[in-house]
Amino acid sequence: MKATAIRLALGLLIGGLLGYGWHRLVGCSTGACPLTATPLRGIGYGAFMGLLWALSR
């Protein structure tokens, strides 16, 4: 149980950091990329993808 919680937390954290990094490095100047248009959206999208990755393992 504890290992699962740690894996999910790490998935959320790493995904959020990668989403924020994607926003900072690539960004969106045209507004045509709604998932990474703002830092919070990038973090949310990255955290969701990290959660999916953690649940798939």
Task: Give a short account of the largest sheet.
Answer: none
Q: Structural class, from secondary structure content? A: mainly alpha
Q: Can you tell me the residue ranges where pLDDT is under 50 for at least 5 consecutive residues?
A: none
Mean pLDDT: 88
Q: Into which percent range does the helicity of residues fall?
A: over 70%
Helix-strand topology string: HH
Give the overall shape, derived from the CA principal axes: elongated
**Strand count:** 0
Query: How many angstroms separate the termini?
Result: 14 Å
The oligomeric state is single chain
Whole-number tally of structural domains: 1
The radius of gyration computed from the alpha-carbon positions, rounded to a whole number of angstroms, is 12 Å
The proportion of residues in beta strands is under 5%
Count the DSSP helices.
2
Write the layout of secondary structure elements.
Layout lengths: L1 H24 L13 H18 L1
Task: Explain what the structure shows.
The chain crosses the membrane at residues 37-55. With 57 residues, the chain is mainly alpha-helical. The chain has helices at 2-25, 39-56. It has one domain (2-56). The protein contains two helices and no strands. The longest helix has 24 residues, at 2-25. It starts with a helix and ends with a helix. 21% of the residues are buried. The mean pLDDT is 88.
